[in-house]
Amino acid sequence: MYTLDTNAIIYFLKGEESAVDVIRPILSQDAPVYVSTITELELFSYSSLTEEDEEKIEVALSMVRIEPLTSHIARIAGDLRRLYSRLATPDSAIAATALFTRSTLITRNTRDFRRIDELSVMPI
């Protein structure tokens, strides 16, 4: 099981080779692939987003399970923010989603997440 960080989806949609090489095989497996609602928010919040970009995002999101930010996940994220004060709030929610779903987080941003001992991280 995997959780995709926002940057992983962005690089995948841009066709960056390292992201495509990691994510494409994962999407073709039967294992669940999760995305936090925080990632969904971040993807749709870019000011330069075009209609074509929105369509690509919609297609990508249709291939994954969007995990809502529940109270339980929010509490895990809060614990992470307390323990790792430099971890940004959106990143703490995405990490909490991966921990809650017991999945490996796929990200380009390994530096911010590697401090979380119990979190499995796969770089792209």
Look at the structure and name the CATH superfamily.
5'-nuclease
- The shape is globular
Going by CATH, the architecture would be 3-Layer(aba) Sandwich
Structural class: alpha/beta
Cofactor: Mg(2+)
GO molecular function: hydrolase activity; magnesium ion binding; RNA nuclease activity; toxin activity
Keywords: Hydrolase, Magnesium, Metal-binding, Nuclease, Toxin, Toxin-antitoxin system
EC number: 3.1.-.-
Task: Give an overview in words.
- This protein has 124 residues and is α/β, with parallel strands linked by helices.
- The chain has a single domain, classed as Rossmann fold (3-Layer(aba) Sandwich), CATH 3.40.50.1010.
- It is built from 7 helices and 5 strands, in the order βααβααβααβαβ.
- It has a 5-stranded parallel β-sheet with strand order 3-2-1-4-5.
- Helix 7 (110-113) links the parallel strand 4 (104-107) and strand 5.
- Helix 1 crosses helix 2 (17-27).
- 31% of the residues are buried.
- Mg(2+) binds at residues 5, 91.
- Residues 3-118 form the PIN domain.
- Keywords: Hydrolase, Magnesium, Metal-binding, Nuclease, Toxin, Toxin-antitoxin system.
